[in-house]
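Weekly modeling sync, notes
Attendees: S.R. (lead), two postdocs, one rotation student

Agenda item 3: backlog of single-chain predictions. S.R. asked that every request posted to the team notebook include the full sequence so nobody has to chase files. The rotation student volunteered to paste the first one in as an example of the format we agreed on. Action items at the bottom.

Example entry:
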Amino acid sequence: MAAFGQGLSKTGIAGISILSVAAFANFLPSRMSVGVVLPILICCDLVAVLSYRRNAAWHHLIRLFPWAAIGVVLGYLLLRTFSQFNLSPLIGTILIALVGVQWWRRSKNTDKPAPDSDIPHSAVFIAVMGIAAGFTTMIANAAGPIMVLYFLASRLEKMEFMGTGAWFFMILNWFKVPFSWSLHLISLNSLPYDLWLAPCGMAGALFGRLIIKYINQTVFETSALVLTFLASVRLLFE
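Predicted structure, as returned to the notebook:
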């Protein structure tokens, strides 16, 4: 079910991935769970990109990728230096704050379109979100909530939201592979789990593609925020 949820988050219900990450972390030793989840995510990314390959907002991706790459490198250096350091409570606190900001933004624009000035274009905002996404995906495969908040703040329509996220994570997850291998997060011992679980993840991604057309945009955004908040609270107690 955790692998299925990973796939579902890629194509149907954004934000649910962090719940699956938490489930894996409870079923397996924490470092091993990070390595097991990454190949599953890559398989799910493939389904997502094939499903939404024409829906990506590439101007967002071009601005985010360099910063996300820096975040991955920083996460790698931290894991290599402080292998037992627990950043989950800090990440949870930051995400809860970001959810609060996004709810506030939505409350200001409930009955009217957001003005262009209300959409984040600043280089600082993009850099912070990109580095945070790269860093958290490297240390815990937990960048989903950060990108949910970024894409919601950017007012992406749900199909564009899913397409942009699909391409972003596929490229970023492949970029992480050599770093994860170097840290022994991915190993010959973890790959048998992936051979068993990857089909479950891909099934979830295919199911998500079927149901997304029935999901209302407002419900989509609200569920993404609620799931992100719940997952963030969970991180506080890890």
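Discussion: group reviewed the output briefly. Confidence is low (pLDDT under 50) at residues 111-117.
Action items: rotation student to repeat for the remaining queue; S.R. to check formatting next week.
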